[in-house]
Amino acid sequence: MRFQLALNVRNLDEAIPYYSKLLGAPVNKRKPGYANFAVDSPPIKLVLLENPNATERLNHVGFEMDTDEVEDTLTRLEPQGLADEVIRDETCCYANKSTVYSTDPEGLLWEFYKFHGDTEVFRASPRREKPAAKPKPSATCCR
Asked: pTM of whole model > 0.70?
């Protein structure tokens, strides 16, 4: 399992060298308006989303997991009414993945996902299994 932190940045070309030096790791994936770092120690996936007009630096947080962990998370969250949305096959952030989304009471988006592979598309229309129960923040990566 790897913790994910997604930040809004004004300029990717400035942010990438900084975070590469800070984390001691090269950029893992770089696409228009998007970059990520996959660091083993500490286990973190840092996502940078170029969003110069964002009013918040924090975009969303989450965990990159294996498939069983995502299903276990769904089994734990759904009975409590905390699984806002389940998407078993989505294209988002230049990746194909299975995701469980939950939004905290103040609107922070939590994403629990299994990465299946890279894509050349930032976002595609997801297949929704459960309608969103709460309003979503407007500047999220994978919506």
From this structure: yes
